[in-house]
Write a structure and sequence with these properties.
The chain is of the alpha+beta class. It has eight helices and twelve strands. About 0% of the residues have low confidence.
Length: about 450
């Protein structure tokens, strides 16, 4: 059934059905015409045989004494085409005077009517001479005519039966060849995505497909303009927000330190929390803008060195001290085909998610594998790891804060370097916890 889902399969099937239908109609019409022509040719042969035989018979009869019993010839008469013919020579009263070797001694017809007639499975031609006193009848079995017609019909039906599947194969090969540009265009369109919006070449495409490719190029051009505008707006907005947010945070911290009113201090703390969340969102938007700009390619980079720096940076904060555990390969140096800054962004987001969404005060393990893998796992109960967490601004069922951009940024960066991100819960080799496993392509 998969064959008929393709355009080539449907075209070939349609061509075969049309060819077979017209072939059957042509064979039926041709068989009827062939039968008529063969009958006419055989009738003509019978008439010619009778007219050639008649003078010989007349001379033979008038040169002999009258006989009381019919005389049978020793050999049969065969026409030029090899069809077996018999004959009888009869007088005006209908008595058989002479007959061929394999002809019956009884009269072929009860009446002597000149011309063609059909009698008891015989096709008979009657020709009279000497004022109707001598009559020659040449006959042929109708089964012989059917045999000749069948052989002739088989002669042109067999090639048609053999050539029909061959024509289907040729049609399939021709269609596959002519539809190859469609496959090429499909592959070109499939290769286009957010990182590859290059126009499709139309010079080598047929005019019909070139028009489609031009429409796709126009669509991608508008899409690229929209994406560029979105990236530019995100980057500019996040960048412009950094300075006023930093100033507002500083003023809020000063207000908390200077005020002695507990209610005002509580409100200031809430304002600081909101500003911190907004500053964090601004930082994430900047990271996302950099990821969309294609900053991941580069390297090779040593993941162990980057992991040391990131872990050390997190441990500078009081709330994270003692919670991070770093595991590095026992020997050798691991290399990953990714930019150093991009790897740091990936690792920071993964560690931040693990700290925020893990068990309160639980450990977070950062592991660099010798097989070009990097994993971040935390303590806590096993939870589902839905794939929609990779969507932007998508957050799981958690009470912890966050922007919902961390995993989206990680996935966007890893996509650019052909690395994969897998979420496992429970973590590998454990019955609990949550793990983010990154596998880098060979450097």
């Amino acid at each position: 059934m998969r064959l008929f889902r393709s355009l080539a399969g449907r075209l070939v099937a349609s061509l075969i059905l049309v060819t077979v239908a017209f072939g059957i109609a042509a064979a039926t019409w041709g068989s009827m015409t062939l039968r008529r022509e063969i009958n006419e040719a055989m009738d003509s042969s019978m008439r010619e045989a009778a007219r050639r035989l008649l003078p010989v018979v007349v001379d033979d009869l008038f040169g002999r004494d009258p006989l009381q019993t019919p005389r049978r010839l020793a050999e049969s008469v065969t026409d030029d085409e090899g069809a077996q013919l018999i004959f009888q020579v009869r007088n005006a009263d209908g008595h058989v005077l002479i007959h061929s070797y394999d002809a019956p001694p009884e009269p072929l017809t009860p009446r002597l009517t000149p011309g063609f007639s059909d009698e008891a499975g015989w096709r008979i031609y009657t020709e009279a001479a000497v004022s109707g006193t001598i009559v020659v009848q040449v006959a042929e079995r109708e089964t012989q005519r059917g045999k000749e017609t069948l052989e002739a019909a088989t002669g042109f039906l067999i090639p048609m039966v053999v050539l029909t599947p061959l024509s289907a194969l040729v049609a399939w090969l021709v269609l596959v060849r002519f539809l190859r540009p469609v496959t090429t265009l499909r592959g070109e369109i499939s290769a286009r995505h957010g990182d590859n919006l290059a126009p499709i070449r139309t010079e080598d495409l047929p005019s019909e497909l070139a028009a489609i490719a031009k429409s796709v190029n126009s669509l991608m051009r508008r899409l690229r303009m929209a994406l560029d505008a979105e990236k530019e707006f995100t980057a500019n907005a996040a960048h412009e927000l950094r300075t006023p947010l930093a100033g507002a945070l500083a003023q809020t911290e000063r207000l908390i330190a200077e005020t002695r009113d507990e209610a005002a201090q509580a409100r200031a703390i809430r304002v600081k929390t909101a500003l911190s969340n907004l500053a964090n969102l601004s930082e994430k938007l900047l990271q996302l803008a950099r990821a969309d700009a294609g900053m991941a390619t580069g390297g090779p980079t040593d993941p162990s060195a980057v992991a040391k720096l990131v872990v050390a940076d997190f441990e500078q904060h009081e709330e994270n001290r003692g919670r991070l555990r770093l595991e590095l390969p026992a020997r050798g140096t691991v290399k990953a085909a990714i930019d150093t800054d991009a790897l740091a962004i990936v690792l920071r987001n993964l560690v931040e998610n693990a700290l925020r969404h893990g068990a309160e005060g639980g450990k977070v393990t950062v592991r660099v594998g010798a097989d070009s893998t990097l994993s971040v796992s935390n303590d806590g109960p096993a939870v589902p790891a839905p794939n929609d967490l990779f969507n932007r601004f998508e957050r799981g069922a958690t009470r912890s804060g966050g922007s919902g951009l961390g995993l989206a940024i990680v996935a966007r960066i890893l996509q650019q370097v052909d690395a994969t991100l897998t979420l496992n819960s429970p973590a590998t080799g454990r019955t609990d916890g949550f793990e983010a496993l990154v596998r880098f392509a060979a450097s």
